Amino acid sequence: MEGQCRVCGQTHANVEPHLYDYAQEVDEDLMCQICLQPFVSPVDLLCGHTFCQPCLLKHLQVQKLCPIDRQPTDLKHSSPSSLVLKKLIDKLLVKCPPGVDCGQTVQRGDLEDHLKFRCPVLKSPLRASTSPPSVASLSLSQNLPPKIGITRLPVLEGEVSHIEIPRLSPTLGITVVGGSDTALRCIVVQEVFPDGLVAQDGRLKPGDQLVEINGVDMSSASHHQACQALRKLKSQVLRLGVYR
């Protein structure tokens, strides 16, 4: 299903990468060799090649080979790219999307906040579609029981941010990779699914490192322990320590 994306402001299917109108020439080293566009949610294969996660997923549904060196591979053999690469692509300059076009140029990583809060053309935040909002798409704070006090703070780069997400349903809508028992040695958000609580909250992104889950330090947690901490949460609020 296609709709206006709240991250990039353009219309594309949920399973496709975000679309951007770049205001600068982009180095080839920052380009996905499947879509020939700058990386979106980049992941690395064991062979060392990097692709947009949505592009790679679509490619692997046809053939489980690296698109470049043709070595056998699978999505489970991929891992989120480094924070250095993520910061480089987030600093690329993009224009306000067609249909809005306020004439301003911002860094790609700031476009979502620009569309929500700073774009002079928009008087209200962009929504994922133009259809009437369902209960799930309404502001999370509007659905909270009065007794839950939620602190809504942004996730900042280069430091640990603490965020709270209300558990309005059991479906978080994320996958994580890594752990103390893997080569990553940390817990990293791999994918955020459009219909889950995390996507509705809008702050957690692929590539973010989870350093704490409801007060429990994840620095020495195995992959299984981190997944259990997310699955077995019984409180009404999910509290995360996030490093971006």
TrEMBL record:
Q: List, for all copies, the residue spans of the domain called PDZ.
A: 162-237
The keyword Hydrolase is assigned to this record: no
InterPro entries assigned to the protein according to its UniProt record, in alphabetical order? PDZ, PDZ_scaffold, PDZ_sf, Znf_C3HC4_RING-type, Znf_RING, Znf_RING/FYVE/PHD, Znf_RING_CS
Any one GO molecular-function label of the UniProt entry: zinc ion binding
Q: Which domain of life is it from?
A: Eukaryota
Q: Where is the RING-type domain?
A: 32-70
**Which PROSITE patterns does the UniProt entry name for this protein?**
PDZ, ZF_RING_1, ZF_RING_2
Coiled-coil region list: none
Name the keywords, alphabetized. Answer: Metal-binding, Zinc, Zinc-finger
Q: What is the protein named?
A: RING-type domain-containing protein
Query: Which lineage is the organism of this entry classified under, starting from the top rank?
Result: Eukaryota, Metazoa, Ecdysozoa, Arthropoda, Hexapoda
